[in-house]
Specification:
Number of domains: 2
Order of helices and strands: HHEEEEEEEEEEEEEEEEHHEHEHEEEEEE
Low-confidence stretches: 144-155, 159-166
Oligomer: single chain
Radius of gyration: 32 Å
Structural class: alpha+beta
């Protein structure tokens, strides 16, 4: 009968040591995998928050305040972008501690930017380990290192591969290879001005704003606009949130011209644009007229079909909304019936203007008291 040889004590100790080593390695690998998973979640959550912040910015024209962030959700004007702002997973990893292992938000530049700090225990993609900052330009080390892993947008630019400072391009400038540049304007492009975006349209050889100007601070209809270095506007029925947002502002002639009497003055238009002259408005009228139009007409209902083509939905795409006007006594009249647009040409104590009238296909050339509040369209220089 064969005798089976048992393990010696030394062999048992070796097996136990191997099992212990394998268990230790497994625990280390598991902990490392968990730490990497937590880091990946931190970055993914910050990307989700950044996307929600951009959606908030698109609607509100600014990033949330610190107080809005502290509410625990991201909401604006009834729209919810994040019902619950994610929290950083715990425990902290690497050099992170209980203080840095959190998503800390700060609104910057009066809402034009923000900084969201967080911390990773290890390298995630091109991001180095340690404390990191997310801005509208992307994610990078808070000191400018670590690389920016999000693409530049038209409002963000920087020197660190779209990272580092992730500065803000202003106006119509765009970020090109880390530098803010002004692209060449082509009629049909939109113009950013005074917090509004204005579509443009080419009619004949003229490039016009396809939207009424809406710049300045609202004053009530009974308040005369004044030469006080502040652009002032009227809003129909003193309602800025709806009327000015929809129909644009209404301006007395002097305010629209910024107290110049020079034909073609820039007035309240942006650089490169001006208040159209009577002759330039006449070019527009005649260009849209189906038959010969009297170039020297005075208070005449003529230029057949030009008025229809200038109104909203017309073939010219001028999109002339019937905004009404502010009367000289401070009242508001005839919204949905009339639209009047100032020219920069005076006529004695008055100034020339154009009137669109519902139900009429024509456009009227007339002159009115400069104290009226009319709409303004800008024409490219």
């Amino acid at each position: 009968m064969l005798k089976r040889k048992a393990f010696t004590l030394v062999e048992l100790l070796v097996v136990i040591a191997i099992i212990g080593l394998l268990a230790t390695l497994s625990v280390i690998a598991l902990n490392s995998a968990r730490a990497k998973s937590r880091d990946a979640k931190r970055v993914a959550d910050v990307k989700q928050i950044s996307t929600a912040l951009e959606l908030f910015f698109n609607d509100a024209g600014r990033y949330p305040t610190d107080l809005e962030w502290a509410s625990g959700s991201l909401e604006y004007n009834g729209q919810t972008y994040l019902s619950i702002i994610p929290s950083a997973p715990t425990p902290a990893d690497g050099s992170c501690d209980s203080t840095t292992n959190s998503f800390s938000y700060t609104q910057d530049n009066s809402g034009e930017s923000y900084t969201l700090t967080f911390c990773t225990g290890g390298v995630v993609g091109s991001l180095t380990a340690g404390e990191l900052c997310a801005t509208p330009g992307g994610m990078a080390g808070c000191g400018g290192g670590g690389g920016c892993i999000l693409d530049c947008t038209n409002k963000n630019c920087g020197d660190d591969g779209c990272g580092g400072s992730c500065g803000v391009c202003t106006g119509n400038d765009v970020c090109t290879n880390g530098t803010c540049t002004t692209p060449p304007f082509a009629c049909g492009d939109s113009v950013s001005y005074g917090g509004e975006s204005y579509p443009t349209v080419l009619i004949g050889a003229q490039c016009w704003f396809a939207k009424n100007l809406n710049v300045g601070d609202m004053v009530t209809g009974v308040t005369p606009q004044s030469n006080n270095a502040i652009v002032e506007k009227y809003c129909y029925n003193d309602d800025a949130s709806h009327e000015c947002a929809t129909y644009g502002g209404l301006y007395q002639w002097d305010e629209a011209m910024q107290y110049s009497v020079t034909e073609g003055a820039q007035g309240i238009c942006p650089d490169g644009w001006h208040i159209p002259t009577d002759a330039e408005q006449n070019t527009l009228d005649q260009g849209l007229n189906d038959t010969t139009c009297n170039a020297n007409r005075i208070l005449a209902w003529d230029c057949a079909n030009a008025g229809t083509k200038l109104q909203a939905g017309g073939t010219s795409h001028f999109e002339g909304l019937l905004a009404g006007y502010r009367n000289t006594n401070g009242s508001f009249n005839d919204q949905g019936t009339y639209a009047l647009f100032w020219s920069s040409t005076i006529s004695g104590p008055d100034a020339w203007d154009r009137l669109l009238y519902t139900g009429y296909a024509t456009v009227r050339r007339g002159h009115d008291d400069r104290a009226y509040g009319f709409s303004v369209r800008c024409l490219q220089d």
